[in-house]
Amino acid sequence: MVGIGSSDLDIFPLALGGNTFGWTSDEAASFEILDAFIAGGGNFVDTADSYSAFADGNSGGESETIVGNWTRARGNRDDVVIATKVSQHPEFRGLAPDNIRAAVDASLARLHTDRIDVYYAHYDDEKTPLVESLAAFDALVRAGKVRYVAISNYTPARVREWLDLARDNGFAAPIALQPHYNLVARRDYEGELQNLAVENDLGVFPYFSLAAGFLTGKYRTREDVAGTQRERLTTGYFSDAGLAVVQGLREIAESRSAEMSSVALAWLLARPGVTAPIASASKLSQLPALLDAPALALNSEEVEKLTVLSDAVA
Question: Quick check: 51 and 22 in contact, CB under 8 A?
């Protein structure tokens, strides 16, 4: 178990992504995945109020509803750490104070809970003064509706501004960052954002940690995803250099008798600042490889091999 930044939250060093719930996994399949995740030692579930509004027929909130139905059915709310996000739900866009207050109540209702453990600003809202948004988040913490606040998809400059405003105004300080980060997408996190995380004791939870399935080796060409639900998410990862990374993962996985996804996640866990990668499973059969990652300690040669291959992608 590892701690999240300066908080008192302890989690298994792999977060289960809830973006598939209500999208590629119906409620019954999602319950099976969540049950197996807990049975395998996991306890941290990451979702968002907008999941999965991007799927045909959905309006947003489907993932939270499934997670809430599951914790209520299992009676295990106190044993699970739940993170969700605000700013992208079709009915609650942006980070104006009134919107944050309305969105959190809607999330609490769907999750069947009286508090959210980690509440992210999903995307920056430059139309709203940051100090106003932070005051609204701070009020939620003081009211007990949110235990800790966190930041997702913000530039380093805006993260620094957030940290300064929180300190200067006595607002609840953020405990975590959620960047887009994996072996074929390193630019957003490495450098200034990474330094900010380490210097300010922020937990880091990379999303798209398996590059929407690209790093599992399942897709070898663009044609493999043509016409599938993953096509839009994986298109940007395909390149000769990206496929070389996949081959490197395959070689290490074969030498370790491990799954490629386990190796890709283990590389992330070896990176400075990373607390736990976020990975999702659409099917129960995909989950064991995710849960195996924290115990797979790559040696320095394996880390270097993957890092060098990954350097060529940038």
Answer: yes
Euclidean distance between the first and final Cα of the chain, in Å? 32
**CA distances, 135 to each of 101, 130, 156 (Å):** 11, 9, 20
pLDDT in tens, 134-176: 999 999 999 999 999 999 999 999 999 999 999 999 999 999 9
Q: How far apart are CA 59 and CA 67, in angstroms?
A: 16
Q: Are strands 174-178 and 44-46 parallel, antiparallel or unpaired?
A: unpaired
What pLDDT, in 10s, does the model give residues 283-300?
Answer: 999 999 999 999 999 999
Query: pTM of the predicted model, to two decimals?
Result: 0.95
pLDDT tens digits, one per residue of 229-241? 555 666 678 888 9
Give, in order, the Cα–Cα distances in Å from 35 to each of 12, 76, 283: 15, 11, 12
In angstroms, what is the C-alpha Rg of the chain? 19
Quick check: 111 and 2 in contact, CB under 8 A? Answer: no
231 Cβ contact partners less than 8 Å away, ≥ 6 residues apart: 225
CA–CA distance, 86 with 89 (Å, rounded to integer): 7
Cα separation, 30 vs 16, in Å, equals 11
* Count of other CB atoms within 10 angstroms of residue 3: 14
| Of 5, 31, 210, 40, residue with least CA distance to 117 | 5
